[in-house]
């Protein structure tokens, strides 16, 4: 079994040590490096090519959000999981816009962290349910951001549009496959095509896109 290669980026040594201890209790994880600031994280990503980066937000010099933008701008770069002590909407939305594939608070459980890294490593995205609700609520505000993007959406086939709607509802690939009577491999192909045609990095951005552009509406 190939281990999931993880890079830790946090300016607190004790925090990095704690994450390392949690992850290294699992046989399928390998912590391959540690960074104490954003610049170092960007350099180590290039040098070590991890699968997943655990990224703090507030670090000296280049912060975690800026570092995430630089990391995700690279084709085939690692997935970035933002971990922060601060439950702030501006951090959440800035992380999504920067290309992060997941967002967790540091007061979560070790099990939640382990699960999140595995989710990102297999190419999916992760938001805690309460954070997903806040994303939806933001785009559902009267006078907010609902708009259409006809050219992009017109590129989707009818089936791909169905898959986008299902992703926005929070359905997993297995759930989409069951509801549409498709194989999971076929669903993965549809998901990949949706992301490519819409210019999106992952499922989290697909959920944001769907609500922001009026493809789905809360309760719809």
UniProtKB/TrEMBL annotation:
CDD domains xrefs: LuxR_C_like, REC_NarL-like
Domain (HTH luxR-type) ranges: 149-214
Phosphoprotein recorded as keyword: yes
Any single GO BP term: regulation of DNA-templated transcription
Domain of life from the UniProt record: Bacteria
Key word Phosphoprotein present: yes
Transmembrane segments: none
Keywords carried by this UniProt record: DNA-binding, Phosphoprotein, Transcription, Transcription regulation
Modified residues (4-aspartylphosphate): 56
One example GO MF annotation: DNA binding
SUPFAM superfamilies named in the record: C-terminal effector domain of the bipartite response regulators (SSF46894), CheY-like (SSF52172)
Family annotation (SMART domains): HTH_LUXR, REC
Domain Response regulatory residue range list: 5-121
Protein name per Swiss-Prot or TrEMBL: Two component transcriptional regulator, LuxR family
Species the sequence originates in: Asanoa ishikariensis
């Amino acid at each position: 079994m190939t281990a999931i290669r993880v890079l830790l980026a946090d300016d607190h040594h004790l925090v990095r040590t704690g994450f390392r201890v949690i992850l290294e209790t699992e046989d399928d994880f390998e912590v391959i490096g540690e960074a104490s600031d954003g610049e170092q994280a960007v350099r180590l990503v290039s040098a070590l090519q991890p699968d997943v980066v655990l990224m703090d937000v507030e670090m000296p010099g280049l912060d975690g959000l800026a570092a995430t933008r630089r990391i995700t701008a690279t084709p085939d770069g690692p997935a970035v999981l933002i971990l922060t002590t601060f439950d702030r909407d501006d951090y959440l939305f800035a992380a999504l816009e920067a290309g992060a594939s997941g967002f967790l608070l540091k007061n979560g459980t070790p099990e939640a962290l382990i699960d999140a890294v595995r989710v990102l490593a297999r190419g999916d995205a992760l938001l805690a349910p309460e954070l997903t609700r806040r994303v939806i609520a933001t785009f559902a505000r009267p006078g907010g951001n609902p708009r259409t993007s006809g050219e992009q959406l017109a590129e989707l086939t009818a089936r791909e549009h169905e898959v986008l709607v299902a992703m926005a509802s929070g359905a997993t690939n297995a759930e989409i496959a069951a509801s549409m009577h498709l194989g999971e491999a076929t669903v993965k192909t549809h998901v990949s095509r949706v992301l490519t045609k819409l210019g999106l990095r992952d499922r989290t951005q697909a959920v944001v896109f769907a609500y922001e552009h009026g493809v789905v509406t809360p309760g719809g």
